[in-house]
Amino acid sequence: MLDTAVHNMGLLCSRHKRGNQATTEENDRAAEIERRIEQETKAEKHIQKLLLLGAGESGKSTIFKQIKLLFQTGFDERELQSYTSVIHANVYQTIKTLHDGAKELALSEADSSKYELSADNKEIGEKLSEIGGRLDYPRLTEELVQDILKIWRDPAIQETYARGNELQVPDCADYFMENLQRLSEANYIPTKEDVLHARVRTTGVVEIQFSPVGENKKSGEVYRLYDVGGQRNERRKWIHLFDGVSAVIFCAAISEYDQTLFEDENKNRILETKELFEWVLKQKCFEKTSFMLFLNKFDIFEKKVSKVPLNVCEWFKDYQPVSTGKQEVEHAYEFVKKKFEELYYQNVTCDHQDRVFKIYRTTALDQKLVKKTFKLVDETLRRRNLFEAGLL
Amino acid sequence: MPMYTGGQVLDLETAVKDGILGGGGGGGVICDDVTTPNLGKLDLKKMIEQLDSIEVPSVFICPISLEPMQDPVTLCTGQTYERSNILKWLSLGHFTCPTTMQELWDDSLTPNSTLNHLIHTWFSQKYLAMKKRSQDVQGRSLELLEVLKTVKGQTRVNTLKELRKMVTTHESARKTVAENGGVSFVSSLLGPFTSHSVGSEAIAILVNLQLNSDSITNLLQPTKISLMVDVLNEGSLETKIDCVKLMGILFAASDIVPSLSLLVGVLRLVKDKRHPHGILAGLRLLKIISTQESLGNSIISIGGVPQLVEMLPHFNSESLELCLYVLKVLSSIPHGALALKNCSNLIPNLVKLLMKTSENCTKFALSILLEVCKLSPEESAATAVNAGLAAKLLLVIQSGCNPELKQLSSELLKLCSQNCRASIFISKCKLTRTLQ
């Protein structure tokens, strides 16, 4: 028993000795970790958080992709290829939506013959609709492409497409249908253009860190951009990102004034955006945050405004057209811009006096435009920082 | 050979070169005007006219007219005058030397050719230097304008900065830029993607140039105005003032509806107590756009009324008049009067101002008070009387000011007396029973 005691004592002593050594090592490591944490916290402070918010399909993810293309290394071949299945899915979804939509319209409309597919196409239509309803899509083959084109070119489908705003036809429909042949080629690798048009409902949060390189090639601010899902069920995840945000980039697709939500076919999209914008503005954590409102999808807006009057949307019911053509487009745009401006100032209190608020006209698919727009956003944020540091 | 007069060296070249005559710059130019006196005289007149802001050495000045002499003649007393002036003096019957008061023993007028020569030389030198500077400025401005057409980025910003400096200091630069399509070119730089640095310099240049109606129409495009509003909201004080001035010129010529962002920006400028220049510039713009019908509702919707009312005691007299004018316009629309009434410090502030500064201020203040009191007679009248309105109104009526003011005052007085208990009213008026 004594030797156990001595043995244990010995163990104790040696553990103690080892303990000393271990402690200094641990201390060193702990100190190193502390230092690292301090460094990173300091670095974090310089990183400006940018949040892309907006309703579903407002263009947030497209802007996100554009920033990736502009200020990071863009998409490598692997990433590009990963979009192939998405693009094919978009094609199937479009055709299915149109086909089923035509059937519905044929039932509900008085002039049902307009929406009746021609006899030969009926079977093909059913087949494609069935494919589109699957969870896994087959690869686009030459044969399938021919089928799809037959359906796409059917007058009934074109008539249905003209009423696409009542259905949930994605904006990329036209683009992909036009490029269908290319998309189905055996060695197809999506181009940047294709990737930008691809439509995937974002879920969760995605982020990238980048530094917009100035003309002197000096690195400017470091930004971290967050992209979120816009649909209603995704919005509860937003709140986790709301702290310490330098700027909110709120995307509003102004072309959707005659469309309804994917998640609620009775709600007009612009009205949804309006309510969402108001909600975001009122958040306490955004009291000092700069707001950049991107009035997006201007290219679609341009074409639509002459065909569909703005007043179909309740918020724009007091719109009066004054001329035609390009002038009218400008006039309509200024009207929408003013509406959003009024909305902003209605939701501003004296706490928000100094908050930066700027409106930009964007077309997220146009890389040059996005680059120019972001340059302005960057300049504004830099000036804002100087102002807050008291240097302006 | 140097000549001495009272201990001073009057060698022509040295005198001019060394600046004895108060002129700077070396390298005196000696003009041979002795052979062509008439031509010399005409030139001299023109030069004197063009150099009228320059400080002329006292020895060149005629003691009678205090103007530079173009034909100096010397009396027997040794004093030199402008020929026409001294002749006039003598023709009036005086036979004395105007400065020394001595009686003249000799009525001859000796042309002072030395002085004449000096005067001519001095003015020629100054004139040529001015012309050269002006040409330099003109040449440089033209150069800058050409450079602007080709450069981008930071170089463009720097070029614009330099051009702006030239245009703000030299009339000749302004002329050159305007005559060479500068206005339309600089305007073309303003667009939806213009950076702040470019925008602020371009606006600073444009604000100094004459704008014809075409340029104004061009600048009134919504995208350009949006940019100006953005620059206004983000810029330094000088930039803000430039934007506001430019927009004042543009809006005066049109009936464009000012955006809410613009109004917010202008209000921010007007509320900045540290910078009275900014306040004045902002209020000037507000006055110009106050003729707009929709302006009233816009200002009210952004909560501008209480902000303006709060600033009233801080304005200098010019700003005060402008602000009161704007508030008066607002008071004439129903929402405006309501918004004004809801400002608790409106009535006390206004009452304090009556008869304090200009008649216009009093007039506008009275109009505002009238509208507000008409809206809610009992409440407002009570507040007003408590603030000492009655005494002020009596002061106005008894003073020697414009009948319009007296009219307003009596109306207001009537309103107050109708809505106030007589005893209170009398005590506030400090009237005795007999006067009642």
Characterise the protein shown here.
The complex is a heterodimer of chains A (392) and B (436). Chain A is α/β, with parallel strands linked by helices. Chain A has 14 helices and six strands. Chain A has a six-stranded mixed beta sheet. Mean pLDDT of chain A is 83; it is low at 10-14. Chain B is mainly alpha-helical and 436 residues long. Chain B is 64% helix and 3% strand. Chain B has helices at 12-17, 37-50, 83-91, 113-148, 153-169, 171-179, 182-188, 196-206, 213-219, 222-234, 237-252, 260-270, 276-289, 295-301, 304-311, 317-331, 334-341, 346-353, 359-375, 377-386, 389-398, 403-419, 422-429; strands spanning 4-5, 8-9, 72-74, 80-82, 110-111. Chain B has a three-stranded antiparallel beta sheet. In chain B, strands 1-2 form a two-stranded antiparallel sheet. In chain B, α8 (196-206) crosses α10. Chain B starts with a strand and ends in a 7-residue tail after the last helix. Chain A binds chain B through residues 215-216, 330, 334, 338, 341-342, 344-346, 350, 353, 356-361, 372-373, 375-376, 379-380, 383, 392, and chain B through 153-154, 192-193, 195-197, 222, 226, 230, 233-234, 236, 259-261, 264, 268, 301-303.
Percent strand of chain A equals 5-15%
Gyration radius of chain A, rounded: 28 Å
Would you tell me the structural class of the helices and strands of chain A? Answer: alpha/beta
Number of helices of chain B: 23
Order of helices and strands of chain A: HEHHHHHHHHHEEEHEHHEH
**3D shape of chain B:** flat
Distance between the termini of chain B: 93 Å
